[in-house]
Amino acid sequence: MLSLSALVWLLLTVILYAGARMLYRRYPRTWLSPLIVAPLLLIVLLLVTGSSYKEYNSLSHWLSAMLGPATIAFALPIYEYRGVIRRHWLSLSAGVLAGMITAVLSTVILSRLFGLPVLIERSLAVRSISTPFALAAAPELGGQADLAAIFVVITGLGGMIIGELLLLRFNVRSALARGAMFGAGAHAVGTVTAHRRDPEEGVISSLTMIIAGILMLLTSPWLAGFF
């Protein structure tokens, strides 16, 4: 039986996100992104009320389940730009492969350098792919899905903020380069940013994100042996 508190947390999550989105539309600042404001407010409320994550997630996990269809929705505009994809398939494939190898190797090296537990290390290994793919790949690697989801969100937010700064610093003009960077480095969060900047850039980011997720799922049994 669902508790009243679980329903309250679900409603609070939706209300806080909607409010944060309205705030961001009025004041479009990176640090006011709904993906930053809403989780921070929820964390504060959980700490103040003494509620556990298990209690919060007992009903709110359905919001996470909606990430799968939302990710697929990113793929819909790809058909309209199939000509761009045919022209640059080799560059995109090589970029995704290089990005995934770099993400996994850097995670393993840094985790062992800082002496992190094995569970953390393997959950971190999927931080550079979108949440639905990470939730499926993390257990295959010996990680924990909940931890992986947290690391994915943190990576996405960090990638979005750093990506914006890098684009300004190096004046990157190619939609292909910008989209691939956001899709590989900040997955869904970066893809939303890319779609807002330019439709073609958003399509490239969507494609990069999806290819990276599929590649991680296909190679996770081999990566488990590597770990």
Number of domains: 2
Structural class: mainly alpha
Query: What's the N-to-C terminus distance?
Result: 40 Å
Instruction: Enumerate how many helices there are, as a single number.
Output: 10
Mean pLDDT: 83
| Strand percentage | under 5%
The residue ranges in which pLDDT falls below 50 over 5 or more consecutive positions are none
Number of strands: 0
Report on the biggest sheet.
none
Topology as a string of helices (H) and strands (E): HHHHHHHHHH
Give the C-alpha Rg.
18 Å
Considering DSSP H and I runs of 4 or more, what fraction of the residues is helical? over 70%
Shape: globular
Transmembrane segments: 6-24, 31-53, 59-79, 91-114, 147-168, 203-224
Subcellular location: Membrane
GO molecular function, one term: hydrolase activity
Membrane topology: Multi-pass membrane protein
Briefly summarize what is shown.
The chain is an all-alpha fold. Helix content is 83%, strand content 0%. It has 2 domains: 4-64; 71-226, no CATH class.
Please characterize this protein's 3D structure.
This protein has 2 domains: 61 residues; 156 residues, no CATH class. The chain has 10 helices and no strands. Keywords: Hydrolase, Membrane, Transmembrane, Transmembrane helix. InterPro entries: CidB/LrgB. One of its GO terms (molecular function) is hydrolase activity. This is LrgB family protein.
